[in-house]
C-alpha cells in the first residue's frame, strides 16, 4: 500500500530561486533511499508537491518539509492511499510551470506520469494538480503573515472577580470566558461554563448525577449563572449559557424557569443565548423543536455549539435555524495547515451566510488559526489565544497588536 501526501506552500521572498535545483538534487538522494517518489511543481512563487511511497517514509519526509525554513503557508491538501505510483521516475522531479506554454502545460505534467494506466483528471490527486496548474484555487487560498507579526497585549480593564458569593445553588460554580471581535477590540458575549466547586470540568460535575437528575441539575444551575453575571456587572452585555438538549424536554416548564430567573436577576431574554451541542442524541426531536420555539418566542437566542463534531449538525439546521453556530475546536485546530479543514470551514461559512446565521470560531489557541479564520470572513472568536475561562469572574483579555 502506498501513501500519497499533497501540499502547497509559498517560497519566502529572501530565498533565491536559483537554489531550487540544488535543493531538489539533495532531496532526491534522501527520497530514493526511502523509496519515495513524486513531482514538485513551481510557478515562480508557490510549490505544489505530490509525495508517494511507504507510509512511514512519506510521513517522515513530509514532517521534515514542514520544518524547512525556505517556505511558509504550507497547507496539506490530501493524505490518501493508492495502489500504484503516479510519478515514479525519480525521488522528486522539479517541474517549472514557467517554462511551458499555458495551452500545453497540463499535458506536459501528465507526460511525466509512470502509471501503467493513462493518467487522467478523474484521479483525485491529479484534480488538485490541475487546479494548481490552472491557478483556480485562488479564491479559497489565503496566505497569512508569520505569527510573530502580532503581539497579544493584556487588557486588565476587562478583569473582574468575586472572592466570595452565597447562593442557594451550592453544588456548582461557573467560569466565564469571553467571545471577542479582535479587530474591533470588543467583547461580544460572555459564556458561563459550569464547573464543580473545586473548578472541575462539566463532565465531572454531571458525573455526580444519574438518570434524569442530570437534566434537573443542568436547569437549576442556570439560576447561579444569571446571579453571578449580575454580580459581576454584566450590564447589557450578552450572556451565553450551555444546556444539554434534553434538559429542555425532560424538565417540566424548563423555559418558564429560565425566564423567571432571568427576570429575577435584572436581565432581559434578548441578552441571553442558549447553546446546545449537536453531539448529544436528540431522541425527542419534535418536543425539542417545540421548546426551541418557546425560547425564541420569548426573545432568547439559540446557538449550536461544537458544530461539526457530532452526527446531527446539518440535520438540525434543516429542522430549525439557530441564531449562531460555533465551529468545533477540532476543526479549528491547525486549520491554517489543513486543506480538508479549510474546505469544511468555507462550506460552513457559505451555508450560514445563506441562512443569515452568525459564525463563531471556538478553541482558538494559535495566532495563525485566528489570522486564517479572520481572512475567510469570521470575526468572532473564543479561545485561550484571547482569554482563558475565569473562575467566578471575567478574565483579562489579550488583544492583538501589530509589532
Automatic annotation (TrEMBL):
Pfam families: BLUF, EAL
CDD domains per UniProt: EAL
Position of the signal peptide: none
GO molecular function: blue light photoreceptor activity; cyclic-guanylate-specific phosphodiesterase activity; FAD binding
Annotated ranges, domain EAL: 155-403
Residue span(s) of domain BLUF: 2-93
Gene3D superfamilies listed in its UniProt record: 3.30.70.100, EAL domain (3.20.20.450)
Top-rank taxon: Bacteria
Identification of the protein by name: Diguanylate phosphodiesterase
